[in-house]
Amino acid sequence: MLSIQRGVLTLRGAWERNIPECVVCHGPSGVGVGKSFPPLVGPSAQYLSSQLRAWQLGTRKNDPSDLMGHIARSLTDSEIKAVSEYFANLTASGASR
Q1: What pTM did the predictor assign?
Q2: C-alpha angle with apex 70: 27 to 29, nearest 5 degrees?
């Protein structure tokens, strides 16, 4: 189930909950697009999940129009784990480590 969540959320999103796929904003394979959409490839799963939780709790607020705040508040704990592990296991070229 976790691997299915990884692919669905990162590559397809959950549009029924207004959650776009991660790669729409963060670029192909999560390599980042400018200052507003940093790379998701590189940081550890622990770092990524802690940032998503910070947006959930409202302790991180530096995203345009609260986009990440909305997304993070819409994610379950298992979804946060899934997407964090997905990007933590990718290389800059998009291949799994």
Answers
A1: 0.85
A2: 15
pLDDT tens per residue across span 18-53? 999 999 999 988 999 988 899 999 999 999 999 999
Residue appearing with tokens 């959650």: 19
On whether the CB atoms of residues 41 and 91 are closer than 8 A, the answer is yes
List Cβ neighbours of 75 (8 Å cut-off, separation of 6 or more). Answer: 9, 19, 52, 56, 83
* Angstrom distance (rounded) from CA 24 to CA 87: 14
Cα angle vertex 95, ends 91, 97, to 5°?
A: 65
DSSP letters, 12-33, are T-BGGGTB--HHHHH-GGG--B
